[in-house]
Design brief:
There is one protein chain. This protein is mainly alpha-helical and about 160 residues long. About 65% of the residues lie in helices and about 10% in strands. A three-stranded antiparallel sheet has the order 1-3-2. Strand 2 and strand 3 form a beta hairpin. The longest helix has 22 residues. The chain starts with 7 loop residues before the first helix and ends with a helix.
């Protein structure tokens, strides 16, 4: 049986194990962290006139513009319909422009504007405060390890 090969820590984190408790689950811990992070980020971003979905989209476009709506949705782990609405709101705000993809007319390219880049600078500062608070007790190596472990979890779930 597989359980015999698992460590006690991994067994206790499995919901089917007799000793399972939520605090043993890395996914419960991730959900806790994500919930707290979202609350803090919403407060910080609201103070500069934006929200989490816009933050995610603008940061993705800051790294790669243009990107298609579907590419952004995939990177942001957002439903395509939600991503479309966010892109439309950003376009209305003048932070992005939308254009038909040159290679595939069914796809929409999203381009960050100069105003969008200016917004990125403002929201990065707001996000930085939350990041610094969350990682103040972490070493560089711990941040790198955490990112590597989360990347492995993400890959395993895909």
């Amino acid at each position: 049986m597989k359980y015999q090969l698992m460590s006690k820590t991994k067994k206790r984190a499995d919901p089917t194990h007799d000793e399972f408790k939520l605090e043993h689950s890395p996914f419960y811990r991730l959900a806790q962290v994500e919930g707290i992070y979202q609350q803090r980020m919403q407060q910080s971003l609201k103070a500069v006139g934006t929200d989490l979905p816009r933050w995610r989209v603008l940061m993705i476009l800051h790294e790669k513009s243009p990107s298609t709506v579907s590419e952004i949705a995939e990177r942001a782990v957002m439903k395509l319909s939600t991503m479309t609405r966010v892109a439309q709101r950003l376009a209305t705000d003048g932070l992005v422009t939308l254009a038909q993809n040159a290679d595939d007319a069914r796809r929409t390219d999203v381009h960050i504007t100069t105003e969008g880049e200016a917004a990125v600078a403002t929201i990065r500062a707001a996000a930085s405060r939350i990041y610094r608070q969350a990682t103040s007790d972490f070493t560089d190596a711990e941040v790198a390890t955490l990112n590597a472990l989360l990347a492995r979890l993400s890959a395993a779930l895909r």
